Amino acid sequence: MKNRVSMGTMMKRVCATSAVTMAALLFSSAVAMPVLFGQMRNGSSRHAPSNAQLASPAIEKRVEVLLKQMTLEEKLGQLVQYSDSGYDGEAQTAAEAAAAPGKNPVAKDKVDAMQLVSTGRLGSMLNTVGQARTNALQHAAVEKSRLHIPLMFGADIIHGYKTVYPIPLGLAATFDPGLVTALGHISATEARTGGVDWFYSPMVDISRDPRWGRTQEGAGEDAYLGAAMARAYIRGYQGDDLSLPTSVAASVKHFAAYGAAEAGREYNTTDMSESRLQQDYLPPYKAAVEAGAATIMSAFNPLNGVPASANRYLLQDVLRDRWGFDGFVVSDYTAVMELRNHGIALDAATAARKAITAGVDVDMMSHYYDAELPALVKSGKVPMSVIDEAVRRVLRVKFALGLFEHPYAEGPEVTTAVAEHRPLVRKAAEEAIVLLKNDSSPSERPLLPLSESIKKIALIGPLADNSGEMTGSWGGDRRDPDVVTVKDALEARAKKNGATVVYAKGTEILGDSETGFAEAVDAAKQADVAVLALGESSEMSGEAGSRAHLDLPGNQEKLLEAVAATGRPVVLLVFSGRPLALTWAAQHVPALMETWFPGTEAGSAIVDLLYGDVAPSGKLPMSFPRAVGQEPLYYNHFPTGRPPIGLDLTKAPNFDSRFFSRYIDVPNAALFPFGYGLSYTQFAYQGVTVSRNAIPFDEANHNDARNLMTVTATVRNTGNREGTEVVQCYVRNLGASLEQPVRSLEGFERVTLKPGESKQVSFKLGFPELSFYDNTGRAVIEQTDYTVWVGGSSEAAEHAEFRIVP
Ligand code: BGC
């Protein structure tokens, strides 16, 4: 895959202390020089800074001193980014595209990064990883280039560097932001040793359509959960101080609304009302900016007709003017060039001009800024002030990262999964996995956890012994041998019980040969229970992994049917980067677990759950459909004029039940709804109460009204073992001037309870939770009625009412 990072190799640290000291001296002495502060930051007084470190006066002075010394070529150098695998493209014009559809950008010669760096014409590298290469390039930047400006090394470290944790969609299923912060921190510490100081993560795009392969890289369909996860990643990556050797700069992507690609097709169009944009898609980006994100990546997609990478409304009005973003914006890969394919630029110069004036500071891989901007600046078509501002933004982040003082990767390089990080990564996988079904059939007790008295287990399927597929499509710089497979872990655990595992692959992930079926069926017949590990390959989701079908790929469902036909109890483990339509399995298989792609500790975590050493606690961050035709399917949809309330949607409609908002061939509801997930114990909810029934409008109508009322409910563990429940709070505005969702998540809390134990859980509701966005992008609150539910999924039933009154 084009963006996979190269393997880092051990090398002696490049020693360039003299140059580093010189550079540090040069710039610290510069601190004392007088500067005209007020002119530096266009409009920065308008809004509190999003990141105090980037907005620090000390950094500001150093930026100004340096900027004054830079030639135009050196300035543009800071605004371009290349990769070592070197590719710069040439886009089609709209006319060429019409004449020769399907022609792709033409790959040109490899760039000579070392040469560009030495001459100050390259500011950052993409997916170059490992001390040897990063330090060599950095050495050229700080020793050889005229102004000694260090490089930034950005990489797609999305869910772990060497020690890999579950894909972000799986992490969202934990509903555990503290855990996500801790994981982000360990990946930052690992990656810094390999020279990486900038992660192209988190991807905070909300997606309501699992056909889109990149759903695996985000937090799913809900903006509230997405915002909580976005904050958690930023804290984990950036810590309190970007300049620490354990922090990296985050790049929040893909700004904006990339996850709403029509029909779930990658790189496709998005088009939506302002209200929907603000309410359902922007909150996670905003949360990330408020948490201090240092950089943002502009998206590939057009939004309402304007490509995100030339969208001044998004990049200036929303991001900088409203949210006060202080960092810099990098384009997505060749997104500047692609403005021509979008048909909004007839030539490269227009594309470069549109992108930089809209607010894209760094051009990733297009080679347009360095090629086109010199002439555009000379002709006055792009003012020098625009270039200067973009350069300032980049330099601020470099100073804040401490790169001028510590440009090199230092210390022993992390080249394999780190033993001390494995327990956290294992815990993450345990919390991420969602138990979807656990029937008693055929015995009295639920099939899971597996009985300790089981003597023979059949382990079947193409993902049962597959280290390469456990880490997902962005596996960082991981090594397959570090991964614990299901087979490794199950054999070890079974042995402790004196049990044996009979393994049969059965089939390939994608394929139609049934030659392995007989062996698999035979294994099941010999065993007390059959555990099937089925699903997608990691490359079937992720970038450019859109699917039009959401079933188990190849002939895996056929294999499942054949094994189930033996009558042996079946546990199905599903590996996937998205919700799949598991309709047959949900009807015929007693135990079903969604495992996503769990990472380095995949097998250990799965086996902990199978045997009940740990009780499942994951909850779905996306609705699982019954059929692909239901997509986009999301719990927080708008009401319709003809809701099919009270109808039996499993029956084909007759005249009386037909003219409703419904399908004639499948129920509307998800197979497994948002927020749903079972444990090995049960939880009951009681007594949802509100602290008051009426809130005066004048009191509510303030942006900063944070505690207008408290919702309280009691949750009780009614089963016979300890377990963790994600208590969720949903709100509905029943009568606004714009239609509002049938319910929206406005709070959650993980609660661990012993058998019989109960706990009161409270959620505070304020302006952010009770307001909505109108179509001018304004958050408003109105006099109206609300319902609030507390429970264990988006189908929670216990509720209370309140209203906002005159
Ligand atoms: C992806 C980004 C990624 C970038 C750099 C693009 O194709 O959309 O998410 O960060 O490549 O590898």
TrEMBL record:
Catalytic reactions on record: Hydrolysis of terminal, non-reducing beta-D-glucosyl residues with release of beta-D-glucose
Keyword Hydrolase in annotation: yes
Keywords for the protein's UniProt record, in alphabetical order: Glycosidase, Hydrolase, Signal
Lineage top rank: taxon: Bacteria
Residue ranges of every copy of the Fibronectin type III-like domain listed in the record: 725-794
GO molecular function: beta-glucosidase activity
Keyword Kinase tagged: no
UniProt-listed SUPFAM superfamilies: (Trans)glycosidases (SSF51445), Beta-D-glucan exohydrolase, C-terminal domain (SSF52279)
Group of enzyme by EC: hydrolase
Signal peptide: 1-32
Enzyme Commission number(s) of this protein: 3.2.1.21
Biological process, per Gene Ontology: glucan catabolic process
Xref: PANTHER family: LYSOSOMAL BETA GLUCOSIDASE (PTHR30620:SF16), PERIPLASMIC BETA-GLUCOSIDASE-RELATED (PTHR30620)
Family: Belongs to the glycosyl hydrolase 3 family.
Protein name per the record: beta-glucosidase
Species name: Telmatobacter sp. DSM 110680
Lineage, top ranks: Bacteria, Pseudomonadati, Acidobacteriota, Terriglobia, Terriglobales
